[in-house]
Specification:
Layout lengths: L5 E3 L2 H9 L3 E8 L2 E12 L2 E6 L8 E10 L4 E13 L3 H7 L9 E15 L12
Antiparallel strand pairs: 1-7, 2-3, 2-5, 3-4, 4-7, 5-6, 6-7
């Protein structure tokens, strides 16, 4: 019965949840190993974009993770976007992206060839609120 709490989200549900948030975490592998960075992001048409400030080198592959958790109720959701990190450097495209008002400094990064997956967890009524099993 443990897995009855987990539900895989449809692509449409994932996109709707992503569009409803503005902050996430980007996971990368750098010279020191795995690292996480908070980012302001936006969904623009079929692309996910963020700004990468103070990164010595943009990694080829990234994972953007966005979630919402209700620790009191023991429920929540998580969506991950995996893909190639492509720095946007075309002047006309940069002018267009400025309308997104992404917070932060640094260059604009598009997640290219992205796969989007998500899961929802629901608390079962007969389990204590701190049960994570």
């Amino acid at each position: 019965m443990r897995n009855a709490r987990w539900q895989e989200l449809s692509s449409g549900e994932c996109r709707k949840l992503l569009a409803g948030r503005r902050l996430g975490r980007v996971a990368v592998i750098d010279d020191d190993g795995p690292a996480m960075f908070p980012v302001s992001y936006a969904v623009d048409r079929d692309a996910v974009l963020f700004r990468a400030a103070d990164w010595p080198k943009l990694p080829a592959q990234i994972v953007l993770q966005v979630d919402d958790l209700d620790e009191t109720g023991g429920s929540g959701w998580s969506v991950t976007v995996r893909g190639e990190a492509i720095e946007v450097d075309e002047p006309n495209e940069l002018d267009d992206l400025r309308r997104l008002h992404l917070r932060g400094d640094g260059g604009y990064v598009r997640v290219h060839k992205a796969s989007i997956r998500g899961h929802r967890i629901a608390r079962q009524a007969d389990l204590p609120s701190n049960y994570l099993g």
